[in-house]
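[stage:ingest] chain + small molecule (iron/sulfur cluster)
[stage:ingest] validated
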Amino acid sequence: MGEKKKKIVKTIKVDLDKCNGCRACEVICSAFHAAPKYSSNNPARSRIRVIHEPLKDIYVPIYAGEYAKAECTGRDKYTIDGKEYDECGFCRASCPSRDLFKEPDSGLPLKCDMCESDPPLEEPMCVQWCLNDALIYEEREEEVEEEAVRGEMEIGLESLADKYGLQKIMDAVARMAISKKG
Ligand code: SF4
Ligand code: SF4
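[stage:predict] done
[stage:export] tokens:
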């Protein structure tokens, strides 16, 4: 058993009844994560996407979750108000079976990081920009096992290694190191 440590668990509750599909959350998320910050906005780069079902006029904000190197073999179907939704419709994963939650240029996976920044924000940007209060931010403290927290860089490197092979990535890093020295 590893050591226990205290961890702040951050959650965003989504109230579908209040979401009107304005997509302000997509716009601000992509702008906040642009480099430099706020230099552009492109919802395709957002870590939250609003899925719209036109017949029922339902909007469902979905947060980008974990990177998955293979598509899953078992899938879930959702029925809401008698309408069946696409098997992957509400999935949070950045996975090979679709383009959602991937950087459009590089194909690297996107994941919601709760707007981690220094200094920290009081509330994530999408929550601040949701004028309809469909997104509600909450924090709670939990005791968890000490574990290695996988950062964005590690996840990005893993996806590159899956795509090009580890040796090619290592060769590229070695070339970059040499050119930086020179
Ligand atoms: S900003 Fe709020 S109301 Fe607008 S699409 Fe996003 S969650 Fe829905
Ligand atoms: S919490 Fe931040 S990173 Fe996550 S979807 Fe909202 S704006 Fe994007």
